[in-house]
Design a protein that fits this description.
Elements: E1 3-8, H1 31-44, E2 50-56, H2 60-81, E3 99-104, H3 107-110, E4 127-132, H4 139-155, E5 160-166, E6 172-178, E7 189-197, E8 200-201, E9 219-224, E10 232-233, H5 240-243, E11 249-250, H6 252-264, E12 267-270, E13 278-280, E14 287-289, H7 296-301, E15 307-313, E16 323-324, E17 329-338, H8 355-376, H9 384-396, H10 409-438, H11 449-454, E18 458-461, E19 473-475, H12 480-489, E20 496-501, H13 502-511, E21 518-520, E22 526-534, H14 540-553, H15 556-562, H16 589-611, H17 619-622
Parallel strand pairs: 2-3, 3-4, 4-5, 9-12, 9-15, 18-19, 18-20
Antiparallel strand pairs: 1-2, 5-6, 6-7, 7-8, 10-11, 13-14, 15-22, 16-22, 17-20, 17-21, 17-22
Helix pairs in contact: 8-9
């Protein structure tokens, strides 16, 4: 490796612009270089403004030949792009461009390629265009040279590699490679992607980026951390036979991975589920989390698995050790608290009116009953039970019997006023009752972290956090379901809180909508970007990123998420919104209870009335 020529378009003009790159008058570019120029103009220059050119040779004659070819390429590219460029000489490669053109005289020379650059560049997708000037005398030599070059590309985790070589008859062949072949017997297979013959390309398609292609059903080891609703398993997750049945894998991440497996035709090989444990460090009384052999990241680091899923965050914590796919979902880490019910299902029916209104209503009923007694006092035919029944029925909106209507004008005016008051109260109660059903009343819950600290809440967490005081933290298992159960079973007025992803809480409330009393604090701790973890600079990253973005733009990612969590369970109970939401049937349980009690009471009275026909001492109550 002698020279590195970097062509940046557009860059600052230098002294070599214009006549700084003379082309030898007697130089005649071979067919291989002419085809390389067309490839650069067609597939690289229209989309990218940066190109790196390097020559790798061990022969002085080949070095002179390649430098003339490089000079020719740079002159033609600058001439047709009408841009200035910059020439640099450096070895090894420190800041590579996305597209790199290599002029190579043998596969052995290409093996001397070395990269030394910052870790932040490890997740960049590189495209290699390799001009192989000599490959041997027969097909076996050509195949061996291609496999050797592509093996070197694979060692740098570069899938987008195209080799140009010229046949003895002048035909230029363009080769790429795929990772797998049918039967999973070979991990690297050269593949003819195009050919240049008689002045034109046989196929008109993009060379870069090269698609991943099919895995031909080859297995891909997957580490997974069970965390509903992201990763769930229907069955015994520790049984290898059941783990081989991929249909049992479900959840948001699980369904998304199965969709990628369907697209790329690979077989998911589930490893035993990962576990998060705490180990007690020597000389310390605190439990600290340390990696172990069951950890997903440890399996990736040991090259046991290729992909890790389970609501993993695309944070900077593990970026120096692993690669991540593009974030496909965003959730929030929130504080979870328990809501204390101040009213029951039956007491909820009393909430539309305050105590003063109920007291006034009771006084009005007694006044109406007193007026009936005063009106019928002279005829001595007043029955208290009948009068109370009339007051109750008119209050509920039932008509008054004709015989019960007074003939005196003053009393009729009083009865009309009573009926008008009953109508207003009945309509107001009905309207307020529906509002109570739509926004049930709960005790106030904290709205922010400062409210939790002022309320002296105890934080149940798997490990100590920077955002909560250490003296108010109690270590608990990593499984959020166990922490939720502890919150639910805590005594009344116990101030406990824990943390989980918003999707975890929504899924839990959706499954336990009849009994769950958990809600979340409105202020989020931080946003959580979900991604799949891969080995460092894995070639799966770029293929997965493209498909994940396509699935996101098509709405498939959102559709999969809605299959596991309904949007209505995301909002906290403290929401003060005037949006009209549907009234769920479970909110009417108190009304149903009262109706059932009244129906049972009516049935009991009807049975007693039938028995009074045969039992003499009951007749005085029903005659």
């Amino acid at each position: 490796m002698r020279l590195l020529w970097l062509l940046g378009l557009p860059l600052l003009p230098v002294a070599v612009a214009g006549g700084g790159i003379p082309v030898p008058e007697a130089y005649r570019a071979p067919e291989l270089v002419q085809v390389a120029l067309q490839v650069l103009e067609r597939y690289v220059n229209p989309r990218y403004n940066a190109l790196a050119i390097m020559e790798l040779s061990r022969s002085l004659a080949m070095q002179r030949y390649q430098r003339e070819a490089i000079t020719f390429l740079l002159h033609r590219l600058r001439e047709r792009r009408a841009s200035s460029f910059q020439l640099l000489m450096d070895t090894p490669i420190e800041e590579p461009r996305d597209h790199i053109l290599f002029l190579v005289d043998s596969s052995r020379a290409f093996r001397s390629l070395r990269f030394h650059f910052a870790k932040t560049l490890f997740d960049r997708e590189f495209n290699f265009l390799i001009l192989l000037s000599w490959w041997g005398n027969d097909e076996n030599d050509k195949l061996n040279a291609l496999q050797d070059i592509f093996g070197t590309c694979l060692s740098f985790h570069v899938l987008n590699a195209v080799v140009l070589l010229e046949e003895h008859d002048g035909v230029v062949l363009l080769y790429g490679y795929r990772l797998y072949a049918p039967g999973c017997q070979s991990s690297l297979t050269p593949e003819l992607v195009n050919r240049y013959e008689k002045g034109e390309f046989l196929r008109q398609h993009q060379l870069f980026p090269r698609p991943m292609g099919s895995f031909y059903g080859c297995p891909l080891n997957v580490s997974w951390y069970p965390l509903p609703p992201f990763v769930m398993f229907n069955g015994n997750q520790f049984d290898p036979e059941q783990r081989s049945q991929i249909s049992r894998l479900t959840g948001f991440d699980g369904e998304l991975l199965k969709k990628l497996a369907e697209i790329y035709d690979f077989r998911i090989n589930l490893l035993p589920p990962c576990e998060k444990r705490r180990k007690k460090t020597a000389g310390s009384l605190d439990f600290l989390y340390t990696s172990n052999s069951d950890d997903c990241f440890q399996q990736l680091s040991d090259a046991v698995s290729s992909v890790a899923i389970g609501a993993l965050s695309a944070s900077l914590k593990h970026r120096d050790r692993f690669s991540t796919t593009a974030a496909y979902h965003q959730s929030a880490l929130v504080f979870v608290v328990r809501v204390e019910h101040k009213i029951g299902a039956v007491n909820q029916l009393v909430q539309p009116f305050c105590g003063t209104v109920w007291l006034s209503l009771t006084f009005s009923c007694l006044l109406a009953l007193l007026l009936q007694w005063a009106w019928r006092r002279r005829r001595r035919d007043f029955d208290v039970s009948v009068g109370a029944l009339h007051v109750h029925t008119t209050l509920l909106g039932n008509p008054v019997e004709g015989g019960a209507l007074p003939h005196c004008s003053v009393v009729r005016c009083l009865l009309g006023a009573w009926l008008l008051v009953a109508l207003v109260l009945r309509v107001a109660y009905q309207g307020k009752l529906y509002d109570v059903f739509r926004l049930p009343y709960y005790s106030p819950v904290p709205e922010s972290l400062s409210d939790l600290l002022e309320g002296n809440y105890t934080y149940l967490a798997p490990e100590y956090a920077d955002y909560f005081p250490r003296d108010l933290t109690r270590l608990r298992p990593f499984n959020f379901l166990q922490r939720f159960e502890e919150l639910e079973a805590a005594p009344v007025d116990t101030k406990l809180t824990t943390s989980s992803l918003l999707d975890n809480l929504a899924h839990y409330n959706q499954l336990n909508w009849q009994t769950s009393r958990l809600t979340h604090v409105r202020e989020h701790i931080y946003l959580y970007q979900l991604a799949m973890y891969l080995r460092r600079h894995s070639i799966l990253k770029f293929a997965f990123d493209r498909k994940l973005k396509q699935l996101q733009s098509a709405g498939i990612v959102g559709y999969i998420n809605r299959n596991f969590v309904e949007s209505g369970f995301y909002a906290p109970y403290t929401r003060q919104s005037h949006a009209v939401v549907p009234i769920r049937l479970e909110l009417l349980c108190g009304l149903y209870f009262v109706c059932h009690m009244m129906m049972l009471a009516a049935l009991l009275v009807f049975i007693l009335e039938l028995l009074s026909l045969r039992i003499s001492w009951l007749r005085r109550y029903f005659v």
